[in-house]
Write a structure and sequence with these properties.
The protein has two domains: 126 residues, no CATH class; 34 residues. The chain contains eight helices and no strands. The protein is flat and about 50 Å long. The protein is mostly helical. It starts with 6 loop residues before the first helix and ends with a helix.
Length: 169
């Protein structure tokens, strides 16, 4: 979660390799699910151990960390464990949901079960895209390079504006 590992690209590539017969899709998905579970267990245990302090750490750069933590807890309480099954698809929610599960007292077994479902759905979706579009990945990669430059500028400007606002407050 904190390291800039292009997990989605790796999953798409694994799906494409599996589609061309160069890799076993089940093994790639198995490793992806295990990696997700291991990382999420660390954050789950942090939530159990440190409670609200871990949410304030995660939301440390938010304009209003208290409001962000409060909103996250309300959403998790309202939607429960099924949030874990979809959290990986929502940027930001994937970072805080494991800690929320620990903070809210979810049992380890239930957490692992729901998190495994979410990890399988997320990994399967991106590996499946690679599998289906394996022949068109060269075109997609060229497009991604062009789009990446624009995206980099947008992200840089957004971060600069955000940090500027944070410093002014």
């Amino acid at each position: 979660m904190w390291l800039p590992v292009p997990a989605i690209l790796v999953l798409v590539a694994a799906g494409a390799l599996a589609g061309s017969g160069r890799m076993t899709l089940a093994v790639a998905l198995g490793f992806a699910i295990i990696a997700c579970l291991l990382a999420d267990m660390v954050w789950y245990e942090a939530g159990r151990r440190w409670g609200d302090r871990i949410l304030h750490f995660i939301y440390g750069l938010a304009l209003d960390p208290d409001a962000a933590a409060r909103w996250s807890k309300e959403m998790f309480v309202r939607h429960g464990l099924r949030t874990l099954a979809l959290a990986k698809f929502v940027v930001g929610l994937d970072a805080v949901t494991p800690s929320l599960a620990g903070l809210c007292g979810t049992s380890r077994l239930r957490f692992i079960a729901f998190d495994a479902v979410g990890a399988a759905l997320w990994s399967g979706a991106y590996a499946g895209l690679g599998y289906v579009f394996r022949k068109d990945l060269n075109h997609a990669a060229a497009y991604a390079v062009r789009l990446g430059t624009v995206w980099l500028v947008v992200v840089f400007v957004s971060v600069a504006i955000y940090v500027g606002r944070k410093l002014v407050r």
